Amino acid sequence: MAPTALFEVLTDAEQAEPRCTLEEEYGAALLLATDRVAVNFVSTIDGIVSYGLGSADSSAVGGGLAADRLLMAMLRAVAAVIVVGAGTVRVAGTHQWTPATLAPDRAGDLAALRAAAGLPASPAPLLAVSTSPDFNPAVDAARRPQTPFHVLAPPPPQRRLAAATIVSAARDLGGDGPILCEGGPHLFGTLVAEPTPLDLFLTVAPQLAGRSNKRPSQRRGLVEGVALPPWARGGRLRSVRRAGQHLLLRYAVDAGQSQP
Predict the structure, then answer these.
(1) pTM (2 d.p.)
(2) Three-state DSSP class for 231?
(3) How far is CA 29 from the centre of its chain?
(4) What percent of the chain stands above pLDDT 70?
(5) What is the DSSP annotation of 6-51?
(6) How many CB atoms are closer than 10 A to CB 24?
(7) How many other β-carbons are positioned within 10 Å of the β-carbon of residue 120?
(8) Are the beta carbons of 53 and 41 closer than 8 angstroms?
(9) Which residues of 178-193 are buried (b: 16+ CB within 10 A; e: fewer)?
(10) Torsion of CA 78, 80, 85, 91, to 10 degrees
(11) Which of 153-157, 166-170, 222-226 has the lowest mean pLDDT?
């Protein structure tokens, strides 16, 4: 089922005719700005993005919604480089960060979308951001990669990288093309803690998760590791799409402060 657009604010470039079949299904040209970092998450109604279930997390949170998986695949197809946190990579198992991994039956359409975006036919390189210089995950994305795999870690005695450092390293790998960040929530916290312009794609699943206060919870919210003052980073709603009981939201999060 293709998502139904409920609200949309298009840029001049996005008002052009969709360039390929997938964009026709999406309802608009899917263009990522090169001066922003695109971020993609799926969360519950109450903002939980991880149950701590390892490789089963995405399906547990998002319900395996086909429209969400296809949007994720499309975002990978139009990205020049994909950035993920070390925790996300550790639980990846056999997952590969290629568009066709998420929608193998649409591999040809995804290749056409990537070509229409003017990007190389080969999948975007993957940049894993770690707090440990010894990060060496035993997962297929690192051991048997289908896309170039790189690790960015702080030199001792640093324990955390700045957002500007992460973006700069991604630019080195992806040139002038769009950067896509697929989490996790601590990496996203690093990006929102600094004035990094963001393009947030957030799928909201129709379920509540909650957190227990009896023991340390493995459940994670959308932003972890940083506590922002009220309205330090506000978003401008770009689009709302509905697929069944799920909402596919897109926000532009600017560098400066925004008020409701």
Answers:
(1) 0.93
(2) coil
(3) 18
(4) 95
(5) EEE---TGGGSPPSSHHHHHHTS-----TTSEEEEEEE-TT-EEE-
(6) 13
(7) 11
(8) no
(9) bbbbbbbbbbbbbbbb
(10) 60
(11) 153-157
